[in-house]
């Protein structure tokens, strides 16, 4: 497709290319890049520039993050949620991916693959909501418990840290299964047979061959999960109630309740910095593992 | 070992579907309580018809998703054409610039849009949500159409031109037709992305003007009603249908190439 | 039907000169091959003639008319691509009729033309099939039909047979020749396969690194190569290098005579001898008018109808001999033999 055919002059092709690209990138400029720039500007203001107050530049909003222990606690909660969710997704997702890649074949495998991916493309809100019906008092879990032990007290897992984790794991598990499946499916049977013929037993094969080859899938899956999770606010609110206070909910508050937009902007950019750092580190790790082969 | 693997896989899939299945069952259950027995009934679906805000939100969602689909597909297809036919300087940079809408947490993008739109007077509401949704769907459209273009052959246009087609005519008769499945798939994807979008819609909505996901969220926060089960079930059905059509289209493309 | 002329055509990409001051004349109604290794510029030249690529310098003329600035879609050329480039979403009929519609020929007249060319390429009855339902050979014929139905001024083929297996390839070579003769189109054919070039062409032009090294009738080029490159690219050749002396060229094993005119005594020259022109003499001594050389057989490569003898002369240089297997082998590995050949078959070549 990318041959250098000289059909038409070079400058005319250049104009055509620019014309084709302008609408899309112009839109992105308006909707994404300028807003991000605006928010960066807001984050260094003392107060939002509405009204006739003079603009005052300050770094207080960023420093607030380090000065208030409350925010550091919240950030730590977010990270914990991220780590728990990602960790559980790894533990639950990798075996499922391996099973899908190696224990199933052909159209059976394709159907199962579609089944795994399908929930992922349905609305996340709906899936989180479905957990409230299970976890709440009077919900399925509660009823099920009472079927077995009628005199047990009413149980509600809702509005707790575990509830948040359960909901998030359920929502993001397909990501991990997908990325690990792609890595696992690429492992050639011949490699495993060769290892067996050299005397390796199953555990060794898993540890020394399968796991390292799945590492790119594990890393990219972890990124795909950790980044949105630390920014989540909907799931912690719905499933965690008062317990569900994360960076996401704090930022949301600044914009929707407290109307402290500069602070919200600064906190957003701190989160963005963390996200970009994670991307940078992980791409280096990934290129080390998928590079020279 | 294989049996254990399969069992585990089924258990995982069951875990993924269980809460959703329960929700669907409850949508058709006459009682709002989770006790047995289950009496099939459509009353919650009927109640939806009277739920004004929910219906308005649904209409908004569909309107915005349709507009998003058309605009994003048009803009994205043009961009994909430019990015995938000739090599030029800055191509990689442009491709990287498509990542932010997907890679940056929507919380940040959504609040940034809120800040910028408010500041510049664009404001919130349906038009604002549409601007946001198109931006979020664009990268996917460029990716899907771009992938379709990769499998297209450059010599077809040259052949058409040798037979007398001007470059434009060659594009429309020879390049575009095989590309249509990709374009339709991208349009469906954009529609689904917009329909499911919650975070950005949340920040750009105003009281009275919101989309279905935002309305569902408010309902959940206000207090549970069984109607939410019903509307969620419908929502789920539509999303699933879109995905299956999309998968069929991608499959058709795949089969055509495996000549 | 028109002749094609290219005058001082040059093309470069960055620092790389792909074509350098190339001039040639392609006879009207004849098939000319552009033969050369990859990187020789033959495909680039073809596409410049067709109009897909614009040259940096030079002119292209069709029947005397300067078409250098005429874009591809107005040049009225027929192109057959290596990949056939059939439109996958159209039937055979629609593929072939495409060019006619572009030229404003529609309806019954167009359909008649389509039927005519499909008949010519022996594909009648397959009009409604899609390309993916056809075999490689059939796709090739459709590509050909599509290119010739508009009666283009010149037909350009870019290694069209390279994707076919050997048997099919040989069949298609004969077919191609027949179709070209029937249609009478001026045809330019790019290939790296010298056997194909010899079989199909009225004229062969050999390209090496952006220049035409030699052009002429196949037999002429084969029997009388002008350069070492031409001699070794087209077929096999034995080369002997040495200074000119009285009567011939002095080499390790003796004196080699040639029917060509030799330059001044003392000049270093190279001559080429085709393997099939060399004969083994076991008994009796060589004729006075023949060239002769003593050699030892190192290997015999048996290929059914023919055998190639690989020998070593007194200086250790390798000599190849090709002979038909009339009877049992005339010599065995290790044997010392005398090689003879005629001075008329000893060709002076430039390095």
Report on the structure:
- The complex is a heterotrimer of chains A (293), B (259) and C (351).
- Chain A is an all-alpha fold.
- Helices cover 75% and strands 0% of the residues of chain A.
- Chain A has 12 helices and no strands.
- Chain A is globular and about 75 Å long.
- Chain B contains 12 helices and no strands.
- In chain B, helix 9 (167-196) packs antiparallel against helix 12 (226-257).
- Chain C folds into 2 domains: 4-225, P-loop containing nucleotide triphosphate hydrolases (Rossmann fold), CATH 3.40.50; 236-349, RNA polymerase II/Efflux pump adaptor protein, barrel-sandwich hybrid domain (OB fold (Dihydrolipoamide Acetyltransferase, E2P), Beta Barrel), CATH 2.40.50.100.
- Chain C starts with a strand and ends with a strand.
- At the A-B interface, helix 1, helix 3, helix 4, helix 5 and helix 6 of A face helix 1, helix 3, helix 5, helix 6 and helix 7 of B.
Please report the total strand number of chain A as a whole number: 0
Question: How would you spell out the order of helices and strands of chain C?
Answer: EEEHEEEHHHEHEHEEHHEEEEEEEEEE
Order of helices and strands of chain A: HHHHHHHHHHHH
Assign the CATH superfamily of the largest domain in chain A: MetI-like
Summed up:
In chain A, 75% of the residues lie in helices and 0% in strands. Chain A is mainly alpha-helical. Chain C has helices at residues 42-50, 92-102, 107-120, 136-148, 166-183, 194-200, 218-223, 228-233; strands at 4-13, 16-26, 31-35, 57-62, 65-66, 77-80, 154-158, 186-191, 203-208, 211-216, 238-245, 248-251, 254-256, 268-273, 279-281, 291-303, 306-313, 318-324, 336-341, 347-349.
What distinguishing features does this structure have?
heterotrimer, A: 293 residues, mainly alpha, MetI-like fold, 2 domains, 12 helices, globular, disordered N terminus, C: 351 residues, alpha+beta, Rossmann fold, OB fold (Dihydrolipoamide Acetyltransferase, E2P), six-stranded mixed β-sheet, five-stranded antiparallel β-sheet, 20 strands, 35% strand, elongated
Give the helices and strands, then pairings.
The complex is a heterotrimer of chains A (293), B (259) and C (351).
Chain A: H1 10-43, H2 60-67, H3 69-102, H4 106-117, H5 124-135, H6 140-148, H7 161-185, H8 189-197, H9 202-230, H10 234-240, H11 247-256, H12 261-290
Helix pairs in contact in A: 1-12, 2-12, 3-7, 3-9, 5-7, 5-10, 7-9, 7-10, 8-9, 9-12, 11-12
Chain B: H1 2-27, H2 43-48, H3 52-85, H4 91-97, H5 100-103, H6 106-120, H7 126-150, H8 154-162, H9 167-196, H10 199-204, H11 212-222, H12 226-257
Chain C: E1 4-13, E2 16-26, E3 31-35, H1 42-50, E4 57-62, E5 65-66, E6 77-80, H2 92-102, H3 107-120, H4 136-148, E7 154-158, H5 166-183, E8 186-191, H6 194-200, E9 203-208, E10 211-216, H7 218-223, H8 228-233, E11 238-245, E12 248-251, E13 254-256, E14 268-273, E15 279-281, E16 291-303, E17 306-313, E18 318-324, E19 336-341, E20 347-349
Parallel strand pairs in C: 3-8, 3-9, 6-7, 7-8
Antiparallel strand pairs in C: 1-2, 1-4, 4-5, 9-10, 11-12, 11-14, 12-13, 14-20, 15-19, 16-17, 16-19, 17-18
